[in-house]
Amino acid sequence: MNAVGATLRRSPARDATAAPFSQRAFPGAATIAFAACAALAIAWGASIWSLWAMSSMGDVPMPGGWNMSMMWAPMCGQKWLRVAASFVGMWIVMMVAMMLPSLAPALRRYHEALGRTGARRTLWLSVLAGLGYFFVWAVLGVVVFALGSALMEAALRLPALARAVPVAAGVAVMAGGALQCSAWKARYLACCRAASVAPKMRRGSYAAWHHGIRLGVHCIACCAGLTSALIVSGMMDLRAMALVTAALTAERFAPSGARVARAIGLAVIATGCSMLVLAVAGH
């Protein structure tokens, strides 16, 4: 009888330990998965950047004292579809490397909110949410390539437009910094920092995909200022990428995220001002 009583007394504790196993296993599994993704991103990114570095030797000097990168247009023998695929592939690599530190806590909260769905099922839904998140960024990459290619083609045909590009770049970076300091930024930053998950949310694949899409849309809105500044100032600049990644991570995790975001915005505005001064002086 005592043995049976002891067994009954131990069973609730044992159940309590077994129940959150998926939640306790998630940090380790996520760390391994994210480390693997980051390693693949770095390896793939290195090969892509080396190809872009080789192709940059053929950059076209433009009126206004700047060079047009061949990543926006096909070189001899290349097709537009191949150029677009290469650009979007490079874009996804960049976003995976830059956004993983900010995405991981949101995915962990989502994983914990799924509760007792089953370890494998919960992990799959978390992965699906992450794929939905990066799908949104991939769509943005397609839009960026389409707009950038159209602008570069117009600059090739219109010398007056080409001469205005350095000034427009400085203004665009300043606008990105101003957006970084705006109420829009503060609202979406608060959303991304909270990344709230409904406790009784649906646990199906569609719901997971939809949650990832929602996270991605909010994140793109939150990062609009810094992303636009990075695109304009030089997507292939590893130093600029590292600075933007550090800025995004700091504003998400610092105790006073809104203040950090505004300080970053002021620094971006100062950078845009210097670009504008150099562009005007060049004219």
UniProtKB/TrEMBL annotation:
The keyword Transmembrane helix applies. This is DUF2182 domain-containing protein. The chain crosses the membrane at residues 32-52, 80-103, 123-148, 160-179, 215-236, 260-281. The keyword Electron transport does not apply. Keywords: Membrane, Transmembrane, Transmembrane helix. It comes from the Bacteria. It comes from Paraburkholderia bengalensis. It holds the Pfam family PpoB2.
